[in-house]
Specification:
single chain; 168 residues; alpha+beta; two-stranded antiparallel sheet; 23% helix
Length: 168
Amino acid sequence: MKNTFAKLSVAVALIAASFSVVAGTLEDAPFKISLPNNDWKLADSVAQEMGHNVSLVASITKTNSPLKSVIIKTLEKSPTTALDGLSAGIRDSFANPAVKKLSDEATIFLGYKARRFTYEVTQNNQTTYNEAVVFVAGNTGWTIAGVGLADQKGEVKKIFTFYLKRDR
């Protein structure tokens, strides 16, 4: 499972950096998304299975910009160790020479215990800045990643303000 997450985190960075992904439903998500204006588009019509109970469920893209966010959902058998597993997978991706770790820190995201990772991915002589937040709600692990060009760090950080805790 750890290898699945390592491959997945690099895939997230590479997928998000290269094109918009049309993906799945957010009905059971512990968050809602509030886009700031019509320049941002949410694609959440069909989940894209990635294997081992992992699905790419949605993406957010900014028109005429490389700024993106992707949302990955993982069904967990053991929620008590899920955050550690999700985090270990992202940490494993730092072994990839295309990935440069900038930070790995504990945080609270939408009221959930979480890990925030920042890293850069260089591919085809272009570097992207990536932030990923992983957290567990119930039996579901969530990875929310924001991606932009290296000089769009501030704009990538703002993407995380689009995610709001859902009132249940």
